[in-house]
Design goal:
Its cofactor is Zn(2+). It catalyses: Hydrolysis of terminal, non-reducing alpha-D-mannose residues in alpha-D-mannosides. Its EC number is 3.2.1.-. The protein has 990 residues and is an alpha+beta fold. The protein folds into three domains: 327 residues, 7-stranded beta/alpha barrel, CATH 3.20.110; 328 residues, Distorted Sandwich (Beta-galactosidase, Chain A, domain 5), CATH 2.70.98.30; 116 residues, Immunoglobulin-like (Sandwich), CATH 2.60.40. The protein is built from 18 helices and 47 strands. The longest helix is centred in the middle third of the chain and has 28 residues. The chain is globular and about 100 Å long. Bound molecules: 2-acetamido-2-deoxy-beta-D-glucopyranose (2 copies) and zinc ion (ZN). The site of one 2-acetamido-2-deoxy-beta-D-glucopyranose has 4 residues, from loops.
C-alpha cells in the first residue's frame, strides 16, 4: 500500500534535484481538492533552544520542576509515529536539537529517518541551528547560524532535506533584513506568528495575511523578495483541537454507542473554525499549525486524533478537505493558485500584543550578554580566518583545536530567547558559558596559527575595564593586533599597565618607535574593576594593521619616567570645557557638566547637542493596564524620564587638553552612572563611553537607563534605524506605514531595534550614533534621539519567563555595564559614507593578544593573508574552511544610495586574492552555503498591478546607481566576482 503511494510520484522527480532514489520537494505535496476549502494540517513542535531551561536540560528533559519538556523524547516519539502511516507528516526546525539526537541514533533508525526525509514525511523547515531572534541579532551571526544548521542537513541527508520555507513562528517582531537574507538563502517563503494586533486585524480584513515582502531597497527584485505569510493562530491549533499531554481539549470519541460520542460536534466545530479562518485568506487553501511549545513528547495523542479528524471531516462531505501537510506544501498550493500578491516594503517592528503591551524592552534586555554575543561573532570570524590561512599554508587542517565549539555556541546564542535577553538567569549564564568555552578553543587556534604554539598567546578578556594581569606585571611584552577586515585599519589600543613607569612602543615590522601616552584609570573603571586588578594607567597608542592580518608591537617598560607625563584629571570650576582634534570640537557646559555644542570643523558644522543619561521608571501596572515592564515588554510609568543626579548635572573633569593622542572629559552623573567623552588624534568621530550600574532599586522603582541627545535640528518626527547591521529603515513618530496607529504608549510604542546605528537628519546635516551592541532606540521629540543602554526591573511582564529582569552580576549588587557610542555630525552625504565604514570597523575591531618578547617561535612583525587589500566597499563577510574546501562570502557594504563612488558595483578577483592559495575551482552557492546556485530555482510569484505602481514611489532617496537586472552569472577565468550594492555572494573555492 505504502509503495503504491510513493512510486508514481517518483517519475516527477526533476533531474536537477539529483534526487535519484528519493522523492521529495513540492512534487510530494497533496494539493487537496480544487473545488473545496483545503485545510493543511501541519503537525509541529516548537523547541526553544534554551529559555526556562538550558538547551541541555530541554534536550534531555532534565530540571522538570521548572517545566516538563524533553526534546529527545519528542523526536523518538514522532519518528515512531510517522513510520506507522505514510500519510502522516511532521516538520522539524531546530538543528541544535536534531543534530545531537541524530548522533545518538543507531544505523537502523538513521536509515528509517532518511527514508522519512526522502519521502517528504519528515520535512525540515527553516533548518537553522535555532530560530533566531530578529531584533537583537547581527546579520553576520544570522547567516552563520543558518549555515551551520542547513549545511548539517545537506551533509546528512542531501538535497531532499533542503528547507524551502523559513519558519519564524515565535520571534517577537520581524525584521526586513531577515526577509532579505532568507530570500538570498533560496527560501521560497516565510511564515511567522507574532505581529502587531492592529496590523493583524487590518490584514485579516484586507486579505493581506499573505504578501510579498521586499527585503531590500538596493537588491533588485526578486532577489530580496520573499513570500511571507502570517499564521492565523500564532503557532497553536484552533481552539478545541489541541491533543497534546499539555492540553485539556477532549479527544475524538468515535464509538457511537457511547454517551460521550463527539464526532459530529468535533466535525462541525472544526468546519466552522476552518471557514472562519478562510475568510482572512485569499485562496481556498488554509494552514493550521497543530502543535506548540515542546509538544509531541507523546506523539500518539496528536496523530491518533488527527487521523480521526481527517477521516471524519472528509467523510462528512461539508466542502472542506483536510489532510496532513507541511508549510512548504501549503506554500506550493498558494503558488499554484495563480493569484496576484501585494508587496510590503517596511517591517514588523515594534510588536504590540495589545494596547500598552509593546515588546520593545528586549531590544536592550541583558546588555552584557548582547555585547558578549556581538564580540564573540568577531572571535568566530577571526578563528575561521586563521583556520583558513592555516589550510592555505598546509593544504590540510593541522591545528589541534577548532572553531566548532564557538560555531555551535554562537548558533545557540542567536535563539529568540538568548541574545534577546528573555531567558531565565541560569539559562543566560549558560549561553555566556558556552560562548566562553568556544572562545577558549578559538584562542588556541589563533595562537597556534600566529605564534606556532596553541598556548603562546595571552588574551585578556577584561581589557574594557583595564584588567590584564599579564601586561600589568611585565617588563616587556609584545602586543599582537589582528585585523579581520580586508583593508588596512588603524585603531587606538589601550593596554593596562603599571602607572609609575613609562614605556617604549616599537613597531616590530619596521623597527620604528610609535608615539604613545599614559592615560589614567577613571573612577568609573575602578568602580567596575573593584578588587580585580590595580593597573594605574592605560598605555595608549595607534596600531596600524594590514588588511586581513596582524601587526606586532614591542612594549618595554623604562625604569625612569622621562618623556611621559602621567596626566591627572583636573576639575574645572568655572567656564566651559572644550576638547578638540583635527575634525571635531566638543564643548561642555561648565555649570551643568553636560555636552553643549559639537563642532565639525572640517565640514564647518556647529550645532548645539545636549547629551545626558536619564532613566524611566518601569511600570508595575496602573489604571490604564496592569502591564508591567519586563524582559520583553518596555512600559515606563511616566512619559518623561528622570535625571540621575538630583539637580540634573554631571560632575565633570578634564584630562589635560594638551595630550597629543587623546583628549578626554570625564562625567559623573552619580556613583552608578559615568561617561568618558573622547576625541582621538586623527579620528573622525566623538567617542562616548558609558558605564552604568549597579542600578539602584531601593526606591522600589525598576529603572531603564537611556542616553539622550537633544539638538535644535528640525526632524519632523523621523528617525532612521538599521536592521541587523545592514540596511536602514525610516521611522516616524506615532506612525506606521500600513495602518492608522492608535498609540497607547507614546514612549515604548516608538522604540525600534538598533543593531549598529541610529540617525536623525534635517535638510543639511545628519547626527549618527553607532553602537557596539543591539539596543532599543527612539526619537520622541524634534531633534532628539535616545538609546536605552541598561535596564534593571522588579516587576515581571507576564510573557512566561517568570523572573524579573534583575541581573546582579558577580558582585551581587546589580550588574554594571559598560559600552560605547560613536557620534558623527556631518553633512548627509559624508555621513552615509562614514557610517558604513565605521560600522565595519566597530563590529570587526582588532583582536588583541599578548606574548613574550623572548619567544623565538615567531619573529615576523606582521602578516597578511591577502595579496592586496579589498576595495573599501567590499566586506569580507566569511572566510572559513569546510569539509569541501574554503567558503568565502564577499559583501558590497554600501546601499545604492549611500555614496556617489562607493555605491557603484565593484569587482574582486578570487584568483590572486590570497597568499599561498590559488583556487582551481570556484562554485557559487546560495547564502546559506547548503546548495549550489545552479541547483535551486526559487518559486516565482505574480505581483498585483497596483503594487507595482505604488512601489515606484517607495525609494526614499534617489539612488546613485540604478541597479539593473545584470546580475553576473559567469566568473570567467580569473574568477572575477562583481558585487551590486548590498549584494552578498557566497562561493566554495577548491
Ligand atoms: C466549496 O468551497 C469552495 C472553496 O471555498 C467554494 O469556492 C465553493 O463555492 C464551495 N462549494 C459549495 C457547494 O459550497
Ligand atoms: C550537499 O551535500 C551533498 C552530499 O550529501 C554534497 O555532494 C554537496 O556538495 C553538498 N552541497 C553543498 C553546497 O555543500
Ligand atoms: Zn520560542
Amino acid at each position: 500500500m505504502f509503495k503504491a503511494f510513493v512510486l508514481p510520484l517518483l517519475l516527477l522527480c526533476s533531474a536537477r534535484l539529483a534526487c535519484a532514489g528519493a522523492n521529495c520537494g513540492y512534487q510530494t505535496c497533496n494539493l487537496g481538492d480544487e473545488n473545496s476549502l483545503n485545510v493543511h494540517l501541519v503537525p509541529h513542535t516548537h523547541d526553544d533552544v534554551g529559555w526556562l531551561k538550558t538547551v541541555d536540560q530541554y534536550y534531555y528533559g532534565a530540571n522538570q520542576k521548572i517545566v516538563q519538556a524533553g526534546v529527545q523524547y519528542i523526536l523518538d516519539s514522532v519518528v515512531s509515529q510517522l513510520l506507522l502511516d505514510p500519510n502522516r507528516r511532521f516538520i522539524y526546525v531546530e538543528m541544535a536539537f536534531f543534530a545531537r539526537w541524530w548522533l545518538e541514533q543507531s544505523d537502523h533508525v538513521k536509515s528509517q529517518v532518511k527514508m522519512l526525509v526522502d519521502e517528504g514525511r519528515l520535512e525540515f523547515i527553516l533548518g537553522g541551528w535555532c530560530m533566531n531572534d530578529e531584533a537583537a541579532t547581527h546579520y553576520n551571526a544570522i547567516i552563520d547560524q543558518m549555515t551551520l544548521g542547513m549545511t548539517f542537513l545537506n551533509r546528512t541527508f542531501g538535497p531532499c532535506a533542503r528547507p524551502r520555507v523559513a519558519w519564524q513562528i515565535d520571534p517577537f517582531g520581524h525584521s526586513r533584513e531577515q526577509a532579505s537574507l532568507f530570500a538570498q538563502m533560496g527560501f521560497d517563503g516565510l511564515f511567522f506568528g507574532r505581529l502587531d494586533f492592529e496590523d493583524k486585524q487590518l490584514r485579516e480584513k484586507e486579505l493581506k495575511m499573505e504578501e510579498i515582502w521586499r527585503g531590500s531597497e538596493s537588491l533588485d527584485s526578486p532577489n530580496a523578495d520573499l513570500f511571507t505569510g502570517v499564521n492565523e493562530n500564532g503557532y497553536g491549533p484552533p481552539s478545541g483541537f489541541c491533543f497534546d499531554t499539555y492540553c485539556a481539549d477532549e479527544p475524538i470519541m468515535d464509538d457511537n454507542s457511547l454517551e460521550e460520542f463527539n464526532v459530529k460536534d468535533k466535525v462541525n466545530f472544526f468546519v466552522d473554525a476552518a471557514r472562519r479562518q478562510a475568510k482572512h485568506f485569499k485562496t481556498n487553501h488554509i494552514m493550521m499549525t497543530m502543535g506548540s511549545d515542546f509538544q509531541y513528547e507523546n506523539a500518539i495523542m496528536w496523530f491518533k486524533n488527527l487521523d480521526k479528524l481527517i477521516k471524519y471531516v472528509n467523510a462528512a462531505k461539508k466542502n472542506v478537505t483536510v489532510f496532513y501537510s507541511t508549510p512548504s506544501c501549503y506554500l506550493y498550493a498558494l503558488n499554484q493558485a495563480d493569484k496576484e500578491w501585494t508587496v510590503k516594503t517596511d517591517d514588523f517592528f515594534p510588536y504590540a500584543e495589545r494596547p500598552h503591551s509593546f515588546w520593545t524592552g528586549y531590544f536592550t534586555s541583558r546588555p552584557g550578554l548582547k555585547a558578549y554575543t556581538r564580540e564573540s561573532n568577531k572571535f568566530l570570524q577571526v578563528c575561521n580566518q586563521v583556520e583558513a590561512s592555516s589550510y592555505f599554508k598546509n593544504h590540510q587542517n593541522t591545528l589541534s583545536r577548532t572553531s566548532a565549539a564557538l560555531k555551535a555556541a554562537m548558533g545557540v546564542a542567536q535563539h529568540h530567547d538568548a541574545v534577546s535577553g528573555t531567558s531565565k538567569q541560569h539559562v543566560a549564564n549558560d549561553y555566556a558559558k558556552r560562548l566562553y568555552i568556544g572562545r577558549e578553543s578559538c584562542k588556541s587556534v589563533i595562537s597556534e596559527v600566529i605564534s606556532g604554539s596553541a598556548s603562546q598567546l595571552t588574551f585578556c578578556d577584561y581589557l574594557n575595564v583595564t584588567l590584564c594581569n599579564y601586561t600589568q606585571n611585565m617588563q616587556q611584552f609584545t602586543v599582537i593586533a589582528y585585523n579581520p577586515i580586508g583593508r588596512e585599519i588603524s585603531r587606538y589600543l589601550r593596554i593596562p599597565v603599571d602607572g609609575s613607569a613609562s614605556f617604549d612602543v616599537v613597531d616590530m615590522a619596521t623597527g620604528n618607535s610609535v608615539a604613545s601616552e599614559l592615560v589614567p584609570v577613571t573612577e568609573a573603571t575602578t568602580s567596575v574593576r573593584r578588587n580585580r586588578g590595580n593597573a594605574a594607567s592605560e598605555l595608549l597608542f595607534l596600531a596600524t594593521e594590514p588588511a586581513l592580518g596582524y601587526q606586532q608591537y614591542k612594549v618595554t617598560k623604562r625604569s625612569v619616567s622621562t618623556n611621559f607625563l602621567k596626566k591627572n584629571p583636573i576639575s574645572k570650576t568655572k567656564g566651559d570645557i572644550t576638547i578638540s582634534n583635527e575634525f571635531y570640537k566638543v564643548v561642555f557646559d561648565g555649570n551643568s557638566g553636560l555636552m553643549k555644542t559639537v563642532v565639525n570643523s572640517a565640514s564647518q558644522i556647529e550645532t548645539m547637542i545636549s547629551q545626558q543619561l536619564l532613566w524611566y521608571n518601569a511600570s508595575l501596572g496602573n489604571s490604564a493596564s496592569n502591564q508591567q515592564s519586563g524582559a520583553y515588554v518596555f512600559r515606563p510609568n511616566s512619559t518623561n524620564p528622570f535625571h540621575i543626579s538630583a539637580d540634573g548635572k554631571a560632575e565633570v573633569k578634564l584630562v589635560q587638553s594638551d595630550n597629543p593622542l587623546v583628549q578626554e572629559v570625564y562625567q559623573k552623573f552619580s556613583d552608578w552612572a559615568y561617561q568618558v567623552v573622547r576625541l582621538y588624534k586623527g579620528k573622525k568621530f566623538v567617542e562616548v563611553e558609558w558605564t552604568v550600574g549597579p542600578i539602584p532599586v531601593d526606591d522600589k522603582w525598576g529603572k531603564e537607563i537611556i542616553s539622550r541627545y537633544d539638538t535644535p535640528m528640525v526632524t519632523n518626527g523621523y528617525v532612521y534605524t538599521d536592521a541587523n547591521g545592514r540596511e536602514v529603515l525610516e521611522r516616524k513618530y506615532n506612525y506606521r506605514p500600513t495602518w492608522n496607529l492608535n498609540q497607547s504608549e507614546p514612549v515604548a510604542g516608538n522604540y525600534y531595534p538598533v543593531n549598529s546605528r541610529i540617525y536623525i537628519k534635517d535638510s543639511k546635516y545628519q547626527l549618527t550614533v553607532l553602537t557596539d551592541r543591539s539596543q532599543g532606540g527612539a526619537s520622541l521629540k524634534n531633534g532628539s534621539l535616545e538609546l536605552m543602554v541598561h535596564r534593571r526591573l522588579l516587576g515581571e511582564d507576564g510573557k512566561g519567563v517568570g523572573e524579573p529582569l534583575n541581573e546582579t552580576g558577580q558582585f551581587g549588587d546589580g550588574l554594571i555595564v559598560r559600552g560605547k557610542h560613536w557620534l558623527l555630525l556631518d553633512t548627509i552625504t559624508s555621513s552615509q559614507r562614514q557610517h558604513r565604514l565605521l560600522a565595519e570597523e566597530i563590529f570587526m575591531s582588532p583582536l588583541v593578544a599578548f606574548q613574550n618578547v623572548t619567544s623565538d617561535t615567531n619573529t615576523m612583525g606582521s602578516g597578511s593573508w591577502l595579496v592586496a587589500p579589498l576595495p573599501d566597499n567590499v566586506h569580507l563577510l566569511t572566510l572559513a574552511t569546510t569539509p569541501d574546501g574554503v567558503l568565502i562570502r564577499l559583501e558590497h557594504q554600501f546601499t545604492k544610495s549611500d555614496d556617489a563612488e562607493l555605491s557603484k558595483p565593484v569587482t574582486v578577483s578570487l584568483k590572486n586574492l590570497f597568499k599561498n592559495f590559488q583556487p582551481t575551482s570556484v562554485e557559487e552557492l546560495w547564502l546559506g552555503a547548503n546548495a549550489k546556485k545552479d541547483d535551486v530555482t526559487r518559486l516565482q510569484w505574480k505581483l498585483s498591478e497596483r503594487t507595482k505602481r505604488e512601489n515606484r514611489v517607495y525609494n526614499f532617496e534617489r539612488p546613485y546607481y540604478d541597479v539593473t537586472n545584470d546580475f553576473q552569472t559567469s566568473l570567467g577565468d580569473n574568477f572575477d566576482v562583481t558585487l551590486q550594492p548590498m549584494q552578498i555572494r557566497t562561493f566554495l573555492m577548491k
